[in-house]
Every structure is written in C-alpha cells, then in structure tokens.
C-alpha cells in the first residue's frame, strides 16, 4: 500500500469516526496494526508482541477498525442503477459480441485466514495454506457490484457452492428493475 493510499484511508476512517487518536495509540498505528494483521493473517498474540501493546487493546482497536471497514462497503460496493444499461464499450463493440449484454465481470481469489486447529483441514487450499474463497463482481467502470466471501479454502473454485452463489445473484438481481438490454433474470 502506498503512503498516499494509507493516508487517504486513515483520513476517511477518522473523518467518519471509526478511529481516533487515543492516549496509547494514534490513528496511524491503529490502522497499521489492522493492515498488518489482515495482510499477513497473524493472530492477536503476534500483533500484541510485534506492536508491544496488550492483547485486549489490540483486539479492541482491531475490532473497531473492522467494523469501520465493513461500514465502508455501503459506499464502495454498489449495485448498478436500473437505468445504467450495458456499458457502451461492450454494447456496440463487435469485438465483444459475446458480452453484449454484460454489466460486469466476475473473478475470485483466496484470502489467507487464521482458523482454529480443528477447522484447518476444511480451510486448507490446494496451495497448502488456510484460506477463504471470495468472489467479486465489478462493473466495467471498476466499481464493485457484488462481493461474496466466507467459503472454506478447500472449496476449489467454489464449485461446491455455485448453486448458492447463483441463488444469491438471482436475489440481488431480482431486487433491481430490469436493466435495458440485460436478460439475466
């Protein structure tokens, strides 16, 4: 993460009241602890040792930041407007004739996680680490439309969960009015 991006995220979280400087931790340090913990999938005890604060303090600030980041989803994950239609780059381009009614693209990835010892076999992915499967749908303007997380890493390419995924997508799409040129529903 660049310094500029870190600063922008910190300012947004402070501006919305999700984090603030405290007597023992600055907002920068709270965000650094959170990003280190999520980015490296380390346990609370490791964070407490690395940053030399109590486990209780690390846990409290980590959870506050986690709630704040979850709240940011309302601004950064948005369903397409019902009158937005198909992106012009796709709709009228003969190169993309197979995607002429598409409103976005879907891709998935594995996110490293720390889980209890007895649950690790379910979460172990084909590359050997414990992970959660996640899938995101993005518009052609690079905006998140849908995010689905939480499947065990052993669910290769989410094949075992495709039916529930389709049902979730149908529920999401059914909540929209039909999009012009889109015959998904």
Description:
By secondary structure, the protein is an alpha+beta fold. It starts with a helix and ends in an 11-residue tail after the last helix. The radius of gyration is 20 Å and the shape is flat. A hairpin with a 5-residue loop joins β2 and β3 (144-152). The protein has two domains: 3-76; 88-174, no CATH class. The protein has helices at residues 3-15, 27-40, 44-51, 55-76, 88-91, 120-123, 162-174, and strands spanning 105-112, 131-138, 144-152. α2 crosses α4 (55-76). Strands 1-2-3 form a three-stranded antiparallel β-sheet, with no helix packed on it. One of its GO terms (molecular function) is nuclease activity. It is found in: Nucleus. Its cofactor is a divalent metal cation. InterPro entries: DUF8040 (IPR058353), HARBI1-like (IPR045249), HARBI1_dom (IPR027806).
